[in-house]
């Protein structure tokens, strides 16, 4: 009996010691191409998605943020920093940050939001079976690159020349597919690539000099971080422009057509939740948004002296006045 009592006492002591030890809280590394201010709606959506699944930042989960502030060359070092912290999963958005994360680790799970074809870009093996340590959400890029110039052509029936504005690191295949979609509508198309921020204005000057009727800004998280600059340049050179997300139109851009980026970030929280609970990225299919939204800024329509067809205005999901 004495031995039994000592054994029970020993077990109770061990239990109390275990309870006294700090519990391991999962850590999510967030690798951002932009800045906290620029990405705050997306980050808020991601946090809400986590909260809906029971993950409270600072309590049941820790988020480690690393921001490139619009300088993609900083991303590899930031990714290595997150790996050194031994985070449980890395959340990121955009092809360049994803490549930086993949270059830093082949073992830590990576969950992404990407605005182009992740298969064509070589980020995953397939949408259904991503393979490796990477999965996430990808926009309906095929619909996007064909629908955006179509909407611009319908809105501006006299449009004949379209400029595609792409980041320097955008894949050649993606840009080529966008060019093909525009030519399929009978438009003359020219692609301009930009890298450093000081190259942006020259691209708009070139578009104006070549009498482009409109600009289609191709998806990029770097562009997203600098969306106010792009909108300001479109206004300065009086060029109608179409973008992917509402954020551009909210600050004066003419028109956007694309999925809800905040919805994609909220959806990515589900992937992160499943990874933290033991799922392997290779077993989680890449998800795709099912709805798109058309947003038009009526003040910009007026400022540019445009006449937008009533049919397009009637189909808009939101008209900003």
Radius of gyration, whole Å? 23 Å
- For this structure, the CATH topology of the largest domain is Rossmann fold
Task: Give the distance, in angstroms, between the N- and C-terminal Cα atoms.
Answer: 83 Å
CATH homology-level superfamily of the largest domain: Response regulator
Query: In percent, how helical is the residue content?
Result: 40-55%
* Strand arrangement in the largest pleated sheet: 7-6-8-9-10-11-12
Number of individual domains: 2
- Total number of strands: 12
Low-confidence stretches: 6-15, 17-22
Order of helices and strands: HEHEHEHEEHEHEHEHHEHEHEHHE
- What is the name of the CATH class of the largest domain? Alpha Beta
Structural class: alpha/beta
What is the second-level CATH architecture of the largest domain?
3-Layer(aba) Sandwich
User: How confident is the prediction overall: mean pLDDT?
Assistant: 89
3D shape: elongated
Describe this structure in words.
By secondary structure, the protein is an alpha/beta fold. The chain has helices at 2-20, 40-52, 75-84, 95-104, 141-155, 172-183, 200-209, 221-225, 227-236, 246-250, 261-276, 298-303, 310-315, and strands at 27-32, 62-67, 89-93, 110-114, 134-138, 161-167, 188-194, 214-217, 241-243, 255-258, 293-297, 318-320. The protein folds into two domains: 27-139 and 261-283, Response regulator (Rossmann fold, 3-Layer(aba) Sandwich); 141-258 and 293-320, Response regulator (Rossmann fold, 3-Layer(aba) Sandwich). 43% of the residues lie in helices and 19% in strands. It has a seven-stranded mixed beta sheet with strand order 7-6-8-9-10-11-12, sandwiched between helices. It has a five-stranded parallel beta sheet with strand order 2-1-3-4-5, sandwiched between helices. Helix 2 (40-52) crosses helix 11 (261-276). The longest helix is centred in the first third of the chain and has 19 residues, at 2-20. It is elongated and about 60 Å long. The relative contact order is 0.14. Mean pLDDT is 89; it is low at 6-15 and 17-22.
């Amino acid at each position: 009996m004495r031995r039994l009592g000592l054994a029970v006492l020993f077990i109770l002591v061990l239990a109390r010691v275990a309870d006294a030890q700090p519990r391991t809280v999962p850590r999510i590394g967030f690798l951002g191409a932009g800045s906290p201010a620029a990405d705050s709606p997306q980050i808020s959506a991601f946090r809400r998605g986590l909260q809906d699944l029971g993950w409270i930042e600072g309590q049941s989960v820790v988020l480690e943020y690393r921001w490139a502030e619009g300088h993609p060359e900083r991303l590899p070092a930031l990714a290595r920093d997150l790996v050194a912290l031994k985070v449980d999963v890395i959340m990121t958005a955009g092809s360049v940050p994803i490549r930086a994360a993949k270059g830093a680790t082949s073992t830590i799970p990576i969950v992404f939001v990407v605005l182009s074809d992740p298969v064509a870009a070589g980020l995953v093996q397939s949408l259904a079976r991503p393979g490796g340590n990477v999965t996430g959400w990808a926009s309906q890029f095929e619909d996007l690159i064909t629908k955006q110039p179509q909407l611009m052509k319908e809105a501006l029936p006299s449009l004949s020349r379209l400029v595609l504005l792409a980041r320097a690191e955008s894949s050649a295949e993606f840009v080529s597919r966008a060019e093909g979609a525009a030519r399929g509508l009978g438009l003359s198309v020219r692609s301009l690539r930009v890298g450093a921020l000081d190259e942006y204005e020259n691209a708009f000057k070139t578009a104006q000099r070549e009498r482009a009727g409109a600009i289609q800004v191709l998806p990029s998280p770097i562009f997203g971080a600098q969306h106010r600059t792009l909108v300001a340049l479109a206004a300065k050179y009086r060029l109608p422009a179409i973008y992917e997300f509402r954020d551009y139109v909210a600050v004066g851009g003419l028109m956007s057509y694309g999925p809800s980026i905040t919805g994609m970030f909220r959806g990515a929280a589900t992937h992160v939740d499943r990874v933290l609970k033991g799922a392997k990225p290779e077993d989680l299919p890449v998800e795709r948004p099912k709805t798109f939204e058309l947003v038009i800024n009526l003040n910009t329509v007026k400022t540019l002296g445009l006449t937008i067809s009533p049919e397009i205005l009637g189909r808009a999901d939101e008209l900003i006045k």
